[in-house]
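This protein record is not my work; I was only asked to verify it. Take the sequence as given and treat only the tokens as open to question. I have pasted the whole thing underneath without changing anything:
***
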Amino acid sequence: MDSEQRIRDIITTCLSEISKEGAFTGNVPYFTPSPPPKHFKNPRITDATPQNHLYTSTLHHLQTQSPQSLSHATALHEHTHETLHTLPYNLIPPQDRTQYTHATILKACAQLLCNDLPAAFQTVDIGLVMVGSHPILHALITSLEDLMGDRDYTYLGTQFPKLSDPEPTITHPAPIIKAPSVLTFQTYLNQNKPILIQGAVEWPALHLWQNPSYIAQQAGNRTVPIEIGKDYTEREWTQGFVKVGEWLEEVVKGRGGYLAQYDLFAHVPQLRRDILVPDYCFVDDNDSDDGRDVLLHAWFGPKGTISPLHHDPYQNLFAQIVGTKFIVLYPPDANVYPHDTDLLRNTSQVDVEHVDSSKFPGLEGRLECVVRPGEMLFIPKGWWHYVRALSTSLSVSFWF
């Protein structure tokens, strides 16, 4: 089958699939594989909102293969994108997210109609970043990857930079235990105590992810969000989007931003196959037996990336895959002088590697460790923790 026919089939399939969800109408919107009547009108679309008008016109132009489809689809996409930013993400109605998802698919279809495959791919990929996993988006990105073909990333080499900062002197070591049983781990969880676990990570990722070319082969075309700047408390800190392959070119040179607290594995399922959810995640009143209730995040970047002292509302198993990280912990009841703004209330003002005791007296309960490949640090819910990458580093956190 030639590429033009494949593109037509992709567009037809996408329009058919989104018609089943009816995001803009609450009903099944107009769709038919054949062109609509000359004077197009959808009797099911009764809500005269700008979005519905744009949706109707975009469908019409796509079905008639009109070059005007791109301008209409772009306007619809921008309109729904703005809607996502009117409320905090967790308060956005599911209907608004679905409308943005469908607008993303329609824009990508219009870009395909204009023979701009790379733009269509990036549109869908950023859509996945914005709304998370969605079956139509995942199916579409897979089809587009097949059209784009494989790229050779062997020029990235087979190892990340070995250059590392000196390991800090550990004066208040966290307890260490070798691959405890689930019952033994339960005692530490019940006592709300951190523990550094050795010998419990035996995943394919521990070998495969040492190779930047392998990661690029799985995810090189994909677009991900990265942090740019020292850390998120700094005024100069910002965020951006970057293709994984281009970003890895910087990382292997010891540069690049920080891919932090991102569910890379829902975005790139190929990498999810290389790791396992630890059994320890299921001892805390979690009745799931397949990892569905465990939140996975990737933390990936060059030497020097920092997460300032903060706490999270989950139990956390922090697994180190590539490189080393220095971690400092304080108990939940420690006076660590959190910021007084709502956005940073879970983050301390203290620079834990250069504590000004005259400004921040009374810091107690400190623990420290260096986490190496194959090790996991259990960080109980509410414990304050600071993280600095001593080398190029890739970690996975399991929140449960």
